[in-house]
């Protein structure tokens, strides 16, 4: 039985690496945010705007639990905040391997400036304040991210490195 949960800041490459590992290991892949959108029928931004972050986090926890209980083997790309609410980090650690994709602030800024209009937590942040916002959020979330079973440096990562880390 193998369940792998990818955590890390938005834009850290969780979905990218999750899909690659899924294809390589032949395990089902899910993107938690994508499943939420499919179930709810609205974008994440619309859910935040209409119902707020608390509603979103409750829905996120519900779907995280459902996917875990119905899939003894899977790879799940979690949202950047997923491990930070409702003891989700403890839940994921109890039910699988948690991998933190630790991506540098510089790379995150470059990636997120390009896609900020699709990210509800970023859409109102001026470009020149993006780095400060990311640094603060990372500081707030690091306590949760550091609890992962594995911490991998995303910029220098290879699929082989990831597979070796999982079997070590």
- Number of E strands: 5
- Largest pleated sheet: 5 strands, parallel
User: What is the structural class?
Assistant: alpha/beta
| Overall 3D shape | globular
Strand order of the largest sheet: 2-3-1-4-5
Helix content: 40-55%
Terminal-residue CA separation? 16 Å
CA-atom Rg in angstroms = 15 Å
Number of helices: 7
Order of helices and strands: EHEHHEHEHHEH
Mean pLDDT: 95
Describe this structure in words.
The protein is of the alpha/beta class. The protein has 7 helices and 5 strands, in the order βαβααβαβααβα. It has a 5-stranded parallel beta sheet with strand order 2-3-1-4-5. Helix 2 (32-40) crosses helix 3 (44-70). The longest helix has 27 residues, at 44-70. 29% of the residues are buried. The mean pLDDT is 95.
Features:
alpha/beta; 5 strands; 55% helix; 13% strand
In short:
Helices cover 55% and strands 13% of the residues.
Question: Could you outline the blueprint of secondary structure elements for this entry?
Answer:
Blueprint: E1 3-7, H1 14-25, E2 29-31, H2 32-40, H3 44-70, E3 74-77, H4 88-95, E4 97-102, H5 105-115, H6 130-145, E5 150-153, H7 159-167
Parallel strand pairs: 1-3, 1-4, 2-3, 4-5
């Amino acid at each position: 039985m193998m369940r792998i949960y990818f955590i890390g800041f938005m834009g850290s490459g969780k979905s990218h690496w999750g899909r690659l590992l899924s294809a390589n290991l032949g395990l089902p892949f899910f993107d938690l945010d994508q499943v939420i959108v499919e179930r709810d029928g609205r974008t994440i931004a619309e859910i935040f705007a209409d119902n707020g972050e608390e509603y979103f986090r409750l829905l996120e926890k519900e779907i995280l639990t459902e996917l875990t209980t119905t899939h003894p083997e899977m790879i799940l790309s979690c949202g950047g905040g997923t491990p930070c609410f409702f003891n989700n980090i403890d839940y994921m650690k109890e039910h699988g391997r948690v991998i933190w994709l630790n991506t540098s602030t510089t790379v995150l800024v470059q990636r997120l400036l390009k896609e900020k209009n699709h990210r509800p937590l970023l859409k109102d942040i001026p470009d020149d304040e993006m780095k400060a916002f990311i640094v603060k959020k990372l500081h707030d979330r690091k306590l949760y991210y550091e609890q992962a079973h594995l911490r991998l440096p995303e910029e220098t990562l290879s699929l082989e490195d990831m597979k070796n880390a999982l079997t070590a």
